[in-house]
Structure formats: structure tokens, C-alpha cells
Amino acid sequence: MQIDESIELKFAQQLRKHRLRLTRARKEIFQKLYETNKPLSIQDIASITNGVHFVSVYRSVDLMQKAGIVKQVPQGFKNLFELSDLFRPHHHHATCKICAASKEIHDARIESLMNTLTKEAGLLPTEHHFELYGICQNCLSAVEDSKPIQRED
Ligand SMILES: [Zn+2]
Ligand SMILES: [Zn+2]
Asked: Is 60 found in the same domain as 4?
């Protein structure tokens, strides 16, 4: 997949703004996150980037997070990463606790509530984290399907 030129330009500008060089590893990680379009762990990223060492992935993601290019998505005990709101429309996630299937949520009600609550706490809103968890239909029906078998045992 070819990344839009304006997105690539914005990526280069954001690096420059934070006095970071555009290295092959950084570009590769950015590209993979852009293509995959869902939160990934460091391991996930390392497994799909060609010839970029795990340690280098770890360091690059850390730097790119500090530069506001990548953001952390806390999912359970795992730390996942995706491109920041500069490169993707702002959104939240609803994740299945069992199979980790994750769905994006774009909802103005969340944004307005988050802003209101932040202001009511006496703060000028700058960011928020909001994640939903549950059990998806697939996993629910798998549990239901296994019930008669368990009873036969
Ligand atoms: Zn599931
Ligand atoms: Zn939000």
C-alpha cells in the first residue's frame, strides 16, 4: 500500500519538529502502523517490519510516541500502539476480552462528555483515554455452543 504523500510529509515534518531524523526503521514502522490500521504491540510491529531489530522497534516507537506520532492504547495488561490523531481520525476502541477483536468507536457524545468532565475538574482539556471491554458475539456463541458438550461429560 502506498502512503498518501501529504501523510508522509506530515510524518517527516513532525520528526523534524522534534529534531529526529527520518531513519529507515522509523519510516518502516510508520508505514506498517498506517497500513495495519489497528493497535499493535511492539512484538507485532517487530514481526512485520523487514529486518528491523526488536530493540530498534522498541526505541523507535518510544521516540515516535514522545514526538506525538504514535500513541499508546492500553488494552488490558498489554501496551499497544497506533498512529496518533495527527494521522488518523480521533477514536476509541471496544475490545473483546477473550479474542482481543477490536472495533473503533467514533462518537461525538464521548468527546463532548470527556471535554465537559475535564473542564468540570478545572482543567483545559488536552487529551483523554477511554476504552471499552466486553465479550464479542463470536466468543459468546462459542461459550454457549460448548455448554451441552460439558454437560455430556
Ligand atoms: Zn471475541
Ligand atoms: Zn475521544
From this structure: yes
